């Protein structure tokens, strides 16, 4: 009940202010009182046992400030970041827009974050024992030819503190970042990160599975190339997908909001993200790990992702717009589906 009213109050505030207040509340010691039961529905993937297959997507807690409270929302795993080597302010405000009538969000945050050193401290102080992913990126001022330096820097700092690393090259809000998904730029970047992953394994005797997060705005040919490179170079999985720069015709929010630059997420992303997921599963083959994210707003959407080939799922917009009840609801549905199939 309190959670319901708190969410109504937050929804009445400007989007980024509401987000910042939510992060503060989730990071405060009081957050231990808001406990949603974590449903046990274990899935083992990449050698990791996830207590349930529903995770929090990257970008909600970029700096690891709210791990304490987020660990009590019922998720099977948390992904924090995107984090870059140096702190950076991100784009000018306003840069976050709620499209309530469309159950959607547009953002052009631009990797605003406090830098990897800060995140490392937050993770260590959190004492979090659950499954953690750290999503890494490059600073805006780093040119693409030097991007690999930023990614391996973050990899080295983060790999021993988490269960998996995500390489984010699909945000639409850092100029030219998505160009790293193509051709030689992709091959060079992934080769460098893979070498660092193996070097870290040798030094620490700990292998950290590494996934690549991709955009839903690529054509079939680009996707096939990308999936082949990710697999051939030895990466452990794909996160499918980030936000889209498309604006589907069905959007009904006012035009000035719909036309804001940035990535669209939530309900209107669902179909597009699913088209990408279907192709990625086809190109990757049956057993390659895929975490699906994009437009999951209810239990039915979650089931669709699994039918299309997901091994795990993540939510962002659905969690913001519907609250932690969504996580519980999806897990209950998955358990009853599994029981029905037995
Ligand atoms: C405000 C906002 C910030 C985001 N920041 C990041 C980010 O830093 N890194 C990242 O990989 N994805 C980021 N995302 C994308 C989400 O992780 C997710 O891929 C996308 O929103 C689609 O899922 P959804 O429809 O459940 O929101 C962000 C999304 C939103 C709405």
Describe the structure in your own words.
This protein is of the alpha/beta class and about 350 residues long. It has one domain (about 1-340): TIM Barrel (Alpha-Beta Barrel), CATH 3.20.20.70. Helix content is about 40%, strand content about 15%. Helix 3 (about 65-70) links the parallel strand 3 and strand 4. Flavin mononucleotide binds near residues 57, 168, 243 and 293.
User: How is the quaternary structure best described?
Assistant: single chain
Radius of gyration over alpha carbons? 19 Å
Q: Could you say what the CATH architecture is?
A: Alpha-Beta Barrel
What ligands are attached or bound here? flavin mononucleotide
The number of helices is 12
Largest sheet features? 8 strands, parallel, barrel
Q: Could you name the CATH homologous superfamily?
A: Aldolase class I
Summarize the entry for a quick read:
With 342 residues, this protein is α/β, with parallel strands linked by helices.
Structure keywords:
alpha/beta, globular, TIM Barrel, binds flavin mononucleotide, 342 residues, three-stranded antiparallel beta sheet, 12 helices
Map the helices and strands.
Elements: H1 2-11, H2 15-27, E1 43-45, E2 48-50, E3 54-56, H3 67-70, E4 77-83, E5 96-99, E6 104-107, H4 116-126, E7 131-136, H5 147-158, E8 164-168, H6 183-204, E9 210-214, H7 220-232, E10 237-240, H8 255-258, E11 263-266, H9 270-284, E12 290-293, H10 299-307, E13 312-315, H11 317-322, H12 325-341
Parallel strand pairs: 3-4, 3-13, 4-7, 7-8, 8-9, 9-10, 10-12, 12-13
Antiparallel strand pairs: 1-2, 5-6, 6-11
Bound molecules: flavin mononucleotide.
Flavin mononucleotide is lined by residues 57-59, 62, 82, 96, 105, 107, 109, 135, 168, 171, 213, 242-243, 265-266, 269, 293-296, 315-318.
């Amino acid at each position: 009940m309190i959670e319901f009213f708190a969410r109504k109050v937050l929804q009445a505030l400007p989007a980024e202010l509401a987000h910042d207040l939510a992060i503060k509340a989730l990071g405060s010691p009081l957050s231990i009182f808001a406990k949603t039961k974590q449903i046990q529905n274990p899935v083992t993937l990449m050698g990791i046992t996830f207590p349930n297959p529903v995770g929090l997507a990257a970008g909600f807690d970029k700096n690891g400030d709210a791990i304490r409270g987020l660990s009590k929302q019922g998720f099977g795993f948390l992904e924090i970041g995107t984090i870059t080597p140096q702190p950076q302010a991100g784009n000018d405000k306003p840069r976050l827009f709620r499209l309530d009538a469309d159950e959607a969000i547009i953002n052009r945050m631009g990797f605003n974050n406090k830098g990897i050193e800060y995140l490392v401290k937050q993770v260590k102080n959190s004492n979090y024992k659950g499954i953690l992913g750290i999503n890494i990126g490059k600073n805006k001022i780093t040119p693409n030819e030097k991007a690999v330096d930023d990614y391996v820097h973050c990899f080295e700092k983060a790999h021993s503190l988490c269960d998996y690393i995500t390489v984010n090259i699909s945000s639409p809000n850092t100029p030219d970042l998505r160009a790293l998904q193509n051709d030689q730029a992709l091959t060079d970047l992934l080769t460098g990160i893979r070498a660092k992953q193996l070097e870290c394994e040798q030094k620490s005797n700990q292998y950290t599975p590494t996934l690549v997060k991709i955009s839903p705005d690529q054509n079939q040919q680009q996707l096939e190339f990308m999936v082949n490179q990710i697999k051939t170079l030895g990466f452990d999985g794909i996160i499918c997908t980030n936000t889209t720069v498309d604006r589907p015709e069905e959007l009904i929010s006012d035009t000035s909001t719909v036309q804001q630059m940035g990535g669209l997420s939530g309900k209107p992303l669902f179909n597009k993200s699913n088209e990408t997921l279907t192709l990625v599963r086809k190109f990757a083959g049956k057993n390659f790990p895929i975490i699906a994210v994009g437009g999951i707003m209810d239990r039915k959407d979650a089931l669709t992702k699994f039918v299309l080939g997901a091994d795990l799922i993540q939510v962002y917009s659905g969690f913001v717009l519907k609250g932690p009840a969504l996580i519980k609801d999806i897990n209950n549905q998955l358990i009853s589906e599994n029981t029905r199939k037995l």
